[in-house]
Each structure stands twice: as C-alpha cells, then as structure tokens.
C-alpha cells in the first residue's frame, strides 16, 4: 500500500492550502501533478528544493511528477512577491539552463521511462512559442475576466504601487493567464489534474483551475506548501554571499555542507522533515539523540550528510567533513594537502592573508623572517621566537621550529601556507 501523499506532506509541515477534493483524488487514482521551475539560471538553488521535494514525495507515493521549466514564463517574469520586472532571457540561454537543471533534478526524481510514474521534464516554451497574440486573447483571454485577475493579491500589490513597487506592466499582468494556459495544456495532453507550488503561487494556480473549468468543464486541483523561512525571520537559503546553489562551481560542496551544518536547532527540526526522506520514527530518534547532547549536532549532521551526498555524492561529502575538521584542530597535514584550492579557500575564507613573492620560497629566507618581516603575521622576530619556544606555532598543521625550512615544498596547492598561532588564530600566506 502506497503512502498517503497529503498525510505525508502534513506531518512534514509541507502543506499550506489545497482545494476541496484534492486528497480524495490522490487516494482514488494515480495522479499526474506538476511544479513550475524558473529557468533564469543554469543551476537550481536550495530555494527550489521545497517544490522538488514535493514532487519527490509525490513520486514516492505512487503518483507521476512533472517538472515544468518555465521557458515562456521565464521570458515574462512572475510578479508574485516581486517589486520589479525580471531580466528577460533568449531561447539559447533557456535551453542551456534547462539541460543543466534536468541533470540536477535527476538526483531527486526518477526519470526512468519504463516506470508508470516516471518523472518528466516539460518546457512551456515548446507549446507557447508558436501561439499568436490574437489566438491567445481569443482562445484563453476571453475566458477570464479582468475583475477576476485584479482580485489576486500578487496583482493588487503591484497594481496599487504599494511597498515601494513601481507598478505593473501588461506583460506581467498576463502572467497568470500564461501559467493558467500551461495547466490547461498539461491537463489536455498529459491528463495532469494537479498543480503544486509555494503558497505565493496560490493565485496563479487557482487561475489555472478556473480556466480549465471554463474551457473544458473539467475539475482541476491546487495544493501549496508554506514558504520556508528561518526561525529568526530571515530569508531561507540566503547568505551574505547570495544563494546556496546546487552547482558545485557556484557553491562549493564544502560551503553547501556547512550551510546545513550551521542551521539553528529550531530550523533543522523543520528542515530535516522537508528536505530529506527520513521517516517519522527515524527523525524522532535523531531528535532524541540531539536533545541528549545538543553540542554534538546530530540533527544538523544527519541533514547535512543526506543533502550533500544526494547533491554532490559520497566522495565530496567525505571531503567536506574532512575540511570541516581542519578548523577544529582534529586534522593533519595530509588532510590539508588533499584539499583542492576552492575548498581550501572556502575553509579559510575571511582568515587574514599576506601576499609575498614566490621567490621567497627558494630557500634563502628563514621561517622567522617569513613570519615577521616578510608577512607581518608577527610584529617582530622576537615574537616568533617566543611562539616557537612555547610550542604554540604550527605551519600547515605541523608544529614548527626555528629550523623548519622555507621552500616550495611547503606550499599547499603550489601557492599557500597555513600558519596557526595557538588553537584558533589562523593566517594565510599567498605566494604569487
């Protein structure tokens, strides 16, 4: 017996609103449902994961997920929750972004065509690109009144110019019709009866169900999940350096792992339900383990491992764990030398860095000179000698002495030296 999808979302805290009859439909038959994904970048970020996990749970419960890449709608820009129009994309960029996104989706959804509920990727540009303006306003526009469209919150806020917005173009005003047309098209071509999304999409989704009712006389359904926020009210997934991306080139696996590892206890208790496939009993057991020893961060470690392995693989996860341990003094020179440059710089981001010429590592300079006159890490040679005498100075995670040679062999990734004073004070030397 397959799990009840709505019940699954409910206990995970992933259910906000749904139209009457949605749960009954899902219990009665295999349902095809879709979530729209904005293709404005060539990578998903963790803000997309809520919708993707809805599709994942849907598939796990025996239903068929469709991921809709908004190629056409991406050329317009959804006004929901936005105060200004988006940058419009050309077709070549959209196609490139679509291919990259599909590879990332395949880490979550099963696209195996032989399964009756195999996931599918569709792009609304494929059915919108040849639709003329006249055909659209004749076949779609006439079914939905302006009064109905104006009543939507996303339109009202922009239309009134409140909250510092700059009004709304006709392009954006028609967005809900274009999204409604997607739902109609998917119902007619793939028997898709359910659209899902974040709670800010409720207006757009119900426009689709209304359009379907008026055009075909059939019933379609809507289901939304809450918008994910942080316990402190901050925006989920946003950091000082921007989005947390699934693409390793945009956010390193180490940084990705660290994001989840550093979540607060309150946030992690919600995120582990939303972003993993752990069952209820598994999560409750982890919560008990965490409550017994909060400092060991059992919940955060389980969440960070699950997502890092899923997105980046087991090997990158292990590298991220090793890199994390370097800062806490549990690591070795060997582990340090294994780090690639990007991970190394991610680990020591924000650590004071001195630049010196590569020539200083040709064997003529002593360690005392390097750490005082050449880099200023220590104010004087006497200070370096004192630290050496106290055995509180390490170079590349090895205790240093006055005779420690300064040569090119000591350079990590051919360019860096890690200096550590005491337990917590790190400095970098960058040889260029």
Explained architecture:
It contains 20 helices and 13 strands. The chain has 432 residues and is of the alpha/beta class. It is elongated, with a radius of gyration of 27 Å. Helix 19 (367-374) crosses helix 20 (381-389). The chain has a 6-stranded mixed β-sheet with strand order 1-6-5-2-3-4, with helices on both faces. Strands 9-13-12-10-11 form a 5-stranded mixed β-sheet. Helices cover 44% and strands 13% of the residues. The chain has helices at residues 5-11, 22-28, 49-60, 91-105, 125-128, 133-139, 146-150, 153-159, 170-173, 175-190, 202-216, 253-261, 265-275, 280-292, 298-312, 314-326, 333-338, 341-347, 367-374, 381-389, and strands spanning 17-18, 32-37, 64-69, 120-123, 192-198, 221-225, 238-239, 242-243, 353-356, 393-395, 398-399, 416-421, 425-431. Strand 12 (416-421) and strand 13 form a beta hairpin.
């Amino acid at each position: 017996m397959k799990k009840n999808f709505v019940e699954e979302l409910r206990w995970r805290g992933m259910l906000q609103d749904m139209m009457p009859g949605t749960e009954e439909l899902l219990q009665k038959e295999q349902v095809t449902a879709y979530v729209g994904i904005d293709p404005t970048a060539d990578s998903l970020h963790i803000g997309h994961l809520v919708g993707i996990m809805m599709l994942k749970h849907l598939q796990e419960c025996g239903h068929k997920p469709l991921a809709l890449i908004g190629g056409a709608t991406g050329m317009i820009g959804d006004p929901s929750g936005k105060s200004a129009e988006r940058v419009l994309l050309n077709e070549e960029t959209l196609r490139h972004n679509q291919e990259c996104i599909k590879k990332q989706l395949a880490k979550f959804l099963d696209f195996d065509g032989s399964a009756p509920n195999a996931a599918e990727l569709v792009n609304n540009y494929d059915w919108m690109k040849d639709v003329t303006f006249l055909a659209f306003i004749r076949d779609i526009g006439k079914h939905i009144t302006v009064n109905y469209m104006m009543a939507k919150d996303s339109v009202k806020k922009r239309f009134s110019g409140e909250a510092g917005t700059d009004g709304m173009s006709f392009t954006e005003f028609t967005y809900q019709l274009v999204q409604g047309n997607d739902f109609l098209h998917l119902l007619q071509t793939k028997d898709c009866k359910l659209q899902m999304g974040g709670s800010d999409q409720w207006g757009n989704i119900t426009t689709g169900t209304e359009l379907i009712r008026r055009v075909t006389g059939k019933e379609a359904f809507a289901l939304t999940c809450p918008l994910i926020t942080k316990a402190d009210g901050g925006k989920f997934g946003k950091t000082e350096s921007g989005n947390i991306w699934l693409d390793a080139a945009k956010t390193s696996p180490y940084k990705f792992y660290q994001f989840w590892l550093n979540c607060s206890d309150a946030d992690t208790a919600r995120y582990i339900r939303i972003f993993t496939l752990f069952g209820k009993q598994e999560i409750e057991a982890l919560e008990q383990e965490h409550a017994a020893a909060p400092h060991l961060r059992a919940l955060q470690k389980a969440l960070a491992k699950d997502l890092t392995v899923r997105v980046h693989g087991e090997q990158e996860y292990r590298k991220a764990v090793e890199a994390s341990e370097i800062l806490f003094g549990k690591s070795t020179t060997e582990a340090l030398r294994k780090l690639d440059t990007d991970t190394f710089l991610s680990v020591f981001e924000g650590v004071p860095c001195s630049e010196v010429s590569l020539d200083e590592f040709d064997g003529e300079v002593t360690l005392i000179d390097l750490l005082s006159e050449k880099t200023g890490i220590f104010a004087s040679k006497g200070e370096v000698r004192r630290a050496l005498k106290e055995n509180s100075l390490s170079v590349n995670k090895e205790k240093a002495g006055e005779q420690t040679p300064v040569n090119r062999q000591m350079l990590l990734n051919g360019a860096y030296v890690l200096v550590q004073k005491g337990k917590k004070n790190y400095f970098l030397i960058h040889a260029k």
